[in-house]
């Protein structure tokens, strides 16, 4: 008898989940600029049954397209610490790609500041460390140049890129997200106590190798970097490799804790 793969569905405005009965750990994923929760929909059948997929849906995209995106990091983190309570009560880890990695990191720090349990591991993809050399700012570019830069980075389907109406809407959210994180400066704080795993494309112009290695300063625990073939959207090109790495490290940690 075949077993149906779990399907990622919206449960609250902020929480989409692929229910996995009997799971013992939740992988909470934060999408990249302009993207919604369904960016992780194809991960659900790739994860082992011990790990349940949760994806965060932010205002301004997909079913929340009519809502204004956040313009400041502080209010966003404050809202998420409350909105994600249903999935922050047990064993969990965070994965974030690009702007989503910055968001995952800030949320982990906020949970620590509130004395609440944080992620057991941070998986951070395609994002320079907070104190790394600054990458070129894109949010204030003229419209045509901003559009060209977004398409050049990848991650936008040709069909979408060719639809002026859809692209105009998407570019508005993309610019808001880039503005939000390019203007943000992480406050210097003590390193986290959870392990950090950094993933990046080996030819990513937004997260060069020397910038992602600086994340090791942000943890007192285990740290590792993993480079995959590709550019900024390496995780879309080879989702199986990324999910396999996440599952392997997560299951390994679970096994050590139960030993």
Brief overview, please?
This protein has 259 residues and is α/β, with parallel strands linked by helices. The chain has one domain (9-133, 189-258): Rossmann fold. It has helices at 73-83, 99-113, 143-153, 158-161, 164-182, 209-212, 234-237, 239-258, and strands at 9-10, 15-18, 25-30, 51-56, 92-97, 122-125, 196-201, 223-228.
Q: What class do helices, strands and sheet pairing give?
A: alpha/beta
The number of helices is 8
CATH secondary-structure class: Alpha Beta
H-E order: EEEEHEHEHHHEHEHH
Task: Report how far apart the termini are.
Answer: 33 Å
Largest sheet composition: 8 strands, mixed
Unreliable spans are none
Please tell me what the overall shape is. globular
Count of all domains: 1
Strand content: 15-25%
Mean pLDDT: 91
CATH architecture: 3-Layer(aba) Sandwich
CATH superfamily: Alpha/Beta hydrolase fold, catalytic domain
In the sheet with the most strands, the strands line up as 1-2-4-3-5-6-7-8
Helix content: 25-40%
Task: Give a verbal description of the structure.
The protein is α/β, with parallel strands linked by helices and 259 residues long. It has a single domain, classed as Rossmann fold, CATH 3.40.50. The protein is 34% helix and 15% strand. The chain has an 8-stranded mixed β-sheet, with helices on both faces. α6 links the parallel β7 and β8. The chain is globular. The mean pLDDT is 91.
């Amino acid at each position: 008898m075949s077993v149906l793969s779990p399907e990622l569905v919206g449960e609250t405005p902020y929480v989409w989940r692929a229910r996995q009965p009997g799971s013992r750990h939740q992988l909470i994923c934060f999408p990249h600029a302009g993207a919604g929760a369904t960016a992780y929909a194809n991960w659900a059948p790739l994860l082992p049954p011990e790990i349940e997929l949760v994806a965060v849906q932010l205002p301004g995209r997909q079913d929340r397209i009519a809502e204004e995106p956040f313009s400041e990091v502080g209010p966003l983190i404050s809202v998420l610490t409350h909105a994600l309570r249903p999935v922050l009560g047990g064993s969990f880890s965070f994965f974030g790609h690009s702007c989503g990695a910055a968001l995952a990191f800030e949320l982990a720090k906020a949970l620590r500041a509130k004395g609440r349990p944080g992620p057991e591991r941070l998986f951070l993809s395609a994002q320079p460390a907070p104190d790394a050399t600054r990458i070129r700012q894109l949010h204030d570019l003229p419209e045509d140049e901003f559009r060209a830069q977004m398409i050049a980075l990848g991650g936008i389907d040709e069909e979408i890129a060719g639809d002026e109406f859809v692209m105009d809407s998407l570019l508005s959210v993309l610019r808001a997200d880039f503005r939000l994180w390019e203007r943000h400066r992480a406050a210097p704080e003590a390193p986290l106590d959870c392990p950090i795993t950094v993933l990046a494309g080996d030819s990513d112009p937004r997260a060069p190798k020397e910038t992602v290695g600086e994340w090791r300063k942000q943890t007192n625990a285990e740290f590792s970097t993993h480079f995959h073939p590709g550019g900024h959207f390496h995780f879309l090109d080879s989702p199986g490799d990324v999910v396999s790495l996440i599952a392997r490290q997560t299951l390994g940690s679970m096994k050590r804790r139960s030993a």
